[in-house]
Amino acid sequence: xxxxxxxxxxxxxxxxxxxxxxxxxxxxxxxxxxxxxxxxxxxxxxxxxxxxxxxxxxxxxxxxxxxxxxxxxxxxxxxxxxxxxxxxxxx
Length: 91
Description:
Layout: E1 3-14, E2 17-25, H1 29-38, H2 43-56, H3 60-64, H4 68-87
Antiparallel strand pairs: 1-2
């Protein structure tokens, strides 16, 4: 799995252009480290929003404009990626 694309319920402005779908690349360990460093006490939604921004090339304020339905759709789409991180790298 190298990337995931999510169809959004309405257009959003990301990087100055209107989009109705967003693509997320597969995360790397470095992405988790960035998220942990940026979001000290932001809670799980704050961490998820920063991860979405990190993996899509959007900014966190742009992701914060997503409706809750679109946020939830993106969160569900990223779960397969995140389950690997939660399980850790070892057996």
